[in-house]
C-alpha cells in the first residue's frame, strides 16, 4: 500500500519539476517512461494486472494534472500582473504628464536655432 503513495507522490513531483522549465512536449515524452516505471513497480510489488493498470493510469494522470495545475497557476499569476496599470500613465491623447519645456514656451528647439 505504501508503494502506491510513493508512486503517486513521485508522479506529482515529476509534473511539478517539469512544468516551470519545459513545454508540454517533454511531458508527452516522459509519460510513457513514467507509465512503464509505475507498471513495473506495481507488478513487482505483487499487485495483479488490473490493479497495476489502475495504478499506472493514476500515476500518469496525477503527473499530467500537476503539470497542468502549475502551468495554469503561472498563467493566472502573469495575467494578474498584466492587469496592473503601469507607472508611466499616459493621457488619452498619448502625451505623458511631463511637458516639453520648449513647447510650453513656444520656442524653436535649440538644435535648430543658430
Describe the structure.
- This protein is mainly α.
- It is 68% helix and 0% strand.
- It has a domain of 77 residues.
- The termini are far apart.
- Helix 1 runs antiparallel to helix 2 and helix 1 packs parallel to helix 3.
- It is built from four helices and no strands.
Structural key phrases:
114 residues; mainly alpha; 0% strand
Class inferred from helices and paired strands: mainly alpha
Radius of gyration: 28 Å
Taken from the alpha-carbon principal axes, the silhouette is rod-shaped
Total number of strands: 0
Averaged pLDDT: 80
Count of alpha/pi helices:
4
Sketch the major β-sheet. none
Strand content: under 5%
Q: Secondary-structure blueprint of this entry?
A:
Blueprint: H1 2-18, H2 24-44, H3 49-83, H4 101-104
Helix pairs in contact: 1-2, 1-3, 2-3
Condensed summary:
This protein is mostly helical and 114 residues long.
Amino acid at each position: 500500500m505504501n508503494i502506491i503513495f510513493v508512486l503517486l507522490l513521485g508522479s506529482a513531483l515529476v509534473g511539478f519539476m517539469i512544468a516551470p522549465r519545459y513545454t508540454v512536449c517533454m511531458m508527452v515524452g516522459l509519460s510513457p517512461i513514467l507509465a512503464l516505471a509505475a507498471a513495473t513497480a506495481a507488478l513487482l510489488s505483487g499487485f495483479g494486472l488490473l490493479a497495476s493498470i489502475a495504478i499506472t493510469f493514476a500515476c500518469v494522470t496525477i503527473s499530467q494534472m500537476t503539470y497542468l495545475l502549475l502551468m495554469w497557476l503561472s498563467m493566472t499569476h502573469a495575467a494578474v500582473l498584466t492587469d496592473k496599470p503601469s507607472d508611466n500613465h499616459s493621457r488619452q491623447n498619448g502625451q505623458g504628464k511631463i511637458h516639453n519645456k520648449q513647447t510650453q514656451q513656444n520656442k524653436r528647439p535649440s538644435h535648430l536655432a543658430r
